Amino acid sequence: MQNSDLLVNIGRFSIMVVIQILLFNHINFMGYINPYPYILFIVVFPFTGNKSLLIFLGFLLGLSVDIFSDSGGVHAAACVFIAYLRPLLLKFSFGVSYEFNTIKLSKADLGARFTYISAMVLLHHLMLFSMEIFNTSHLVLILKSTLFSSIFTIIVLFCITLLFSRKN
Amino acid sequence: MFLLLFVVAFALTVNSHSYHRNKYITSANFFSGTIYSWKSDVVGYFKLKERNNALAEENRRLRSLLAEARDTVPFIALDSTVFPGPYQYYPAKVINNSYSKTKNYLTLRKRIGDPIEADMGVISSKGIVGIVNKVSNKYASVQSILNTNSKINAKLKNSFHFGTLVWDTQEPNEAKLIDIPRQAPVVVGDTIVTDGKSTIFPRGILIGTIKDFNLSNNQDYYDVTVQLFNDMTNLHHVYIIENVEKEAIQEIEDVEVKAPLQNRPTESIEETNQENDAE
User: What is B11-77+87-147's CATH topology?
Assistant: First the structure.
């Protein structure tokens, strides 16, 4: 990883945590729907980067959000989960071109990008709400929260990636 | 690597779901407290008018209570060294609030040096808010009544039937009062207050009014839906309640619980206890 890459990632990490806890945790659309776009950090982490490092950073990312929202290790678990599954999802959405390290998120075509982001978000939110609610009798609530929050997060993530994909 | 970190995160999650105490990850630490403090300082300016009105309203209510008390009790110069009662109140300010999850917490900024501890009650001018969860030097994290772990002892205002106040995660302005016995005079619109049987809240702190009720599945108890007085989505100034006699009460209660188990012939004690409860 180059030096500027390192700085960009550190910056992205802190900014996403701060925005998440100060803004996105308090939207409460229709009473309970909040987006969790802080996983952008994991989504756009360099595809060639170290996998173990990403899992560790995902843990730290989740834990930072957990500390601020008094939720134990809910976000940490969900982030570690998707950081672990990311290579699989990358292969699934971008096909073999991922294997040859030629793909960049900003250059990928819209369909593949959408599949990748949606899969990451859905898995993250499913894990997040299962852990947060932690009760099988509230299964409907888990699925409902996952669905609505995912839609919200996907929209926000898409806007962010479109706005900041200047490096073509 | 994945498994290790996942297990750690899972353990923290399980820990956060179990009621009680030794929690490691809370927002009552220096970093999150500071950041929430900044935010609250900025956002707070936009709500000053509303907050002033709320405080003025509380002052008016307290003044009218004071006037009533002066009328009924001859005013005697109190000896200021006499302790005023078992409850002490400390002011605090809400710097972070959540109400959309199933387990909600608030973060408070307290005064440095106030002897705040875990398990103290938190109220606002309108009613109960929650129970202190973890304390640091300047901040305290509070388990809101909008938390599925919260169980608060509550009673009907106009009788002595009591039950447990829980939250069913549906609405941030409603809670459920369960285990109210069938013979209790439950009427829609009646007031629910804290019972004072636990050492956390004094008796008679306002909670809400009865919105709806029906018999539970086993037909012996009422499930009551309570409309909370507090707008839990809009909290600012709160008070933390210290019960100075808490330790003494808990000591006695521990003895009561243990004694009948140690030597069985003391059944008469149990009976008298039950009689007392029935009264």
Answer: Thrombin, subunit H (2.40.10)
